[in-house]
């Protein structure tokens, strides 16, 4: 990481470190808000589960995701935690591997934040249509992102190109991408688990109604 940051500092000056710290802070705030608001409401409304119970049960998988930065590597532990929270085995066996491939909320947040940051570093004022394009492209790009460390940064190039931002701007965030990756992976696997828990609860309600 130090070797990646040094060229950026040499070219842009030490003040870039402050900007990198700010963009990291913004990304992590977005991660936390997304989990605390979206996932809490989802598990409460869809599964009737307390958000505190959900996050407490997911803690081992979240820690593993944060340390490994790999959705696929966290998959076995994520399945275990989801089933302890009440997800049916058949549902978790289907939803979680699928989610590890296409459900990348954290990656979409990361790509949007970095695109805006890179635009500001190059002195480019984004218009509303460009911002909407970034949101759409980041969402679509995140679906095709592999569940392995560093994959989100590769797909970031597609997001930048969609609004005409210089792809070389990726170098500005490459040195701290691992720190971004740890947070976005945690968001990704937590979203997968919330889906498994909600789908299982819906299936149980449906079975009880039909029975």
Can you give keywords for this protein?
single chain, Proton glutamate symport protein, 211 residues, mainly alpha, elongated, 10 helices, 0% strand
In DSSP terms, counting alpha (H) and pi (I) runs of 4 or more, how many helices? 10
Q: Which class in CATH terms?
A: Mainly Alpha
Q: Which structural class do you get from the secondary structure elements?
A: mainly alpha
Largest sheet: none
Low-confidence regions? none
Ends distance: 57 Å
Global outline? elongated
CATH topology: Proton glutamate symport protein
Q: How many structural units, i.e. domains?
A: 1
Helix content: over 70%
As a whole number of angstroms, the C-alpha radius of gyration is 18 Å
Strand content: under 5%
Overall mean pLDDT: 86
Q: CATH homologous superfamily, by name?
A: Sodium:dicarboxylate symporter
